[in-house]
Amino acid sequence: MTDSADRESAMPRRGAARTAKLASIPIGIAGRAVGGWGKRLAGQSAEQVSATLSAKAAEQLFEVLGTLKGGAMKFGQALSVFEAAVPDDMAKPYREALTKLQSAAPPMSAQQTRRVLAQQLGRSWEGRFTHFDDVPAASASIGQVHRATWHDGREVAVKVQYPGADEALRSDLRQLQRFSRLFQAFVPGTDVKPLMAELADRMDEELDYLNEADNQRAFVKAFEGDPAFLIPRVVASAPKVVVTEWVTGTPLSKVIAGGDQETRDLAGRLLMEFHYSSPARAHLLHSDPHPGNFMVTDDGRLCVLDFGGVAKLPNGIPRHLGEMTRLALDGESDDLMRLLRENGFVRTDSDLAADEVLAYLAPFTEPLATPTFHFTRRWMQRQAGRVGDTRGSDFRVGRSLNLPPEYLMIHRVTAGSTGILCQLDAEVPARGIVERWQPGFAR
Q1: Closest by Cα among 211, 206, 145 to 173
Q2: Which residue, 80, 212, 216, 71, is CA-closest to 141?
Q3: From CA 341, how far away is CA 330, in angstroms rounded?
């Protein structure tokens, strides 16, 4: 295999080739829509045609995103946590495509992997390991993971960044922004454009594995000795390679697919506590919530992986977010509206009424109204349908509210982890977790 062919097999990065693959998504969906009109004329119901088209569109969308890796795959992973909002009669093909996307992508060759390791860890890199498995154990959006044994006998995970990941990521995000209106259909009730803009802003941080290693070390220190959580220690790091301790466990995707209720509830509780406690304990927020980044270990701990996307919160979660949540839960519309305006969530020239805003936000606080709450796909579908219904008042209110940029990551993590809780079908003591860790919520 030639050097250029070797590079191309790992991550297609030539602008024209990647653009053509991404462009095939809307073209393919449009072609199927024309075929769908023919089926309508042949007697199939609108619902049957819609379900068929959606299933095939999901299959094509995530097949293309998974093949391209880079920004395209990362965007697909970000969408994947909203799978629970897809109506049940269409959910299976989405679920299967998304599960594959969370953990699978074509690997780069052993020759190419070793070339990157030599560049990053030095020409004698093999001497630092007693064993290195050339076959990757897992893949991610911008890199793949190999199992190995460190020179001191520790089992380790070696994450190697795909050559050309930086070029591919920037190219993908530019192209995906052109198709944002199309992708909106896959996440009803969610504004895709800010999500894509946030991904672009975080791109450079996630490409720097030295930064990721520093983030991971900070989480290890913050959760040291906690019997409920396991953060793998960093063994070595370089700009495009990071070596961490190897951990075995059951990925959340498998728990979602077939875990018993006890494991589902445990995973849901620990996931929620991890996200709510991290800003107070580490002054950081793990900002890449999808099932591929979490495992349940045999001794019942939540193992957290991939610290490339992390939001820095030196003062923790802002207190007024907890205050606004409490006011929405208690039905205090006037005080809620005042806080929203003061903190930039409602524009000064807006004519929204306080009762309208309360009616929009209050249903989101349902999980905190009782000591425990059962997160289900049906509940999330109801919320997505409510805020995504263009004929309803909630749609108009939602479009009139503003999300200040500094809260975008917090919003993404909250929405994403809630999506995972609904996929888990978990019953969680949400109120107690929020009361303990969210400043401003407790009375």
Answers
A1: 206
A2: 71
A3: 18
3-state SS string over 350-375?
CCCCHHHHHHHHHHHHHHHCCCCEEC
Q: Which residues contact 284 (CB under 8 A, 6 or more apart)?
A: 215, 218, 219, 222, 278, 310, 311, 312, 313
Distance CA 73, CA 104 (A): 10
Structural contact between residues 173 and 196, judged by C-beta atoms closer than 8 angstroms = yes
- Enumerate the domain spans of the chain: 1-207, 249-443
Provide the token pair at 253: 């995707």
Q: Tell me the residue type at 39.
A: K
Query: What is d(CA 284, CA 220) in angstroms, rounded to the nearest whole number?
Result: 12
How does pLDDT run across 171-185, given as a tens digit for each residue?
A: 666 666 665 555 555
Those residues of the chain that have pLDDT short of 50 are 1-9, 12-14, 18, 22-54, 81, 102-104, 186-190
- What is the token pair recorded at 20? 């053509």
Rounded distance between C-alpha atoms, residue 58 and residue 94, angstroms: 6
| CA-based nearest residue to 343, from 316, 329, 323, 358 | 323
**Cα gap 252→420, rounded to integer Å:** 9
Query: pLDDT tens for residues 217-275?
Result: 999 999 999 999 999 999 999 999 999 999 999 999 999 999 999 999 999 999 999 99
- What integer pLDDT is reported at residue 290 of this predicted model? 84
- Take residue 180 and report the two structure tokens written for it: 């944002």
- DSSP state at residue 43: T
